[in-house]
Amino acid sequence: MKFFVDTADIDQIKELHAYGMVDGVTTNPSIIAKSGRDIIEVTKEICSIVDGPVSAEVVALDFETMLAEGRKLAKIADNIAVKVPLTWAGLQTCKALSDEGTMVNVTLCFSANQALLAAKAGATFISPFIGRLDDINLDGLELIEDIRTIYDNYGYDTQILAASIRSANHMSDCAKIGADVATAPPAVIKAMANHILTDKGLAGFMADVEKAGIKIL
Ligand code: E4P
Question: Ligand 1 atom 6: the closest Cα is on which residue?
Fold first, then answer.
């Protein structure tokens, strides 16, 4: 499973990139607003660090303006994936940009039918939002399973990009289901390394290192 980092925080991207944990980056208008930076400028900087797909989201709601925004975002770098919302205007933009050879990430997906439409519109990625479904007592992971089944039934190339991930458990659950990509905040990716028995085991080994005076260098 590929890991995308769901942030525009350059330091966090660089830190995780150094561990080989960044296959791509996703942003959205809320993430860009949080960065306090110009969308073009910060996206360009991210693309200079990361080779994989970097999602940058349009902000218009109508097809013509969305397409113009998407074309402008796509010019930032070769690895831009233009992010469009799952509306009919977004799907129309997805089809037009995909036909031009631009990667498109269709976002705000909350149902299997929406994912089916995105695949037919030629989306490179579909972003089902797990956490926001869980927030309203629905089952986000079940949606990932349903989309996996549908895409496999028909051999759609659209990659399932599990989004709105809230916990390390979501990451392993998505990997078990077979999501192609999971995008998560840096803190969630870092939390994947945590295990109380690792900490306990290491403390025991270090006590014995000290007792026995073990030295390697
Ligand atoms: C990523 O593409 C999404 O925009 C993001 O994962 C949404 O996450 P949130 O529900 O935590 O805002």
Answer: 164
State the Cα–Cα distance between residues 128 and 115, nearest whole angstrom. 8
Among residues of the chain, what percentage have pLDDT more than 90?
100
159, 144 Cβ separation under 8 angstroms: no
SS (H, E, C) 79-95: CEEEEEECCHHHHHHHH
Q: Which of 34, 83, 176, 215 is catalytic?
A: 83
Neighbours of 136 (CB within 10 A): 8
Q: Is 83 a catalytic residue?
A: yes
Strands (E), 49-191: 54-57, 80-85, 103-109, 125-128, 159-162, 181-184
pLDDT in tens, 52-103: 999 999 999 999 999 999 999 999 999 999 999 999 999 999 999 999 999 9
Query: What does the domain layout of the chain look like in residue ranges?
Result: 2-212
Confidence label for 21 from pLDDT (cuts 50, 70 and 90): very high
Q: What is the pLDDT of residues 175-199, one digit of tens each?
A: 999 999 999 999 999 999 999 999 9
Residues near ligand 1 (Cβ within 6 A): 6, 26, 28, 107, 127, 129, 131-132, 163-164, 183
Superfamily of domain covering 2-212: Aldolase class I (3.20.20.70)
In sequence order, what are the residues at sequence separation of 6 or more whose Cβ sits closer than 8 angstroms to the Cβ of residue 117? Answer: 86, 91
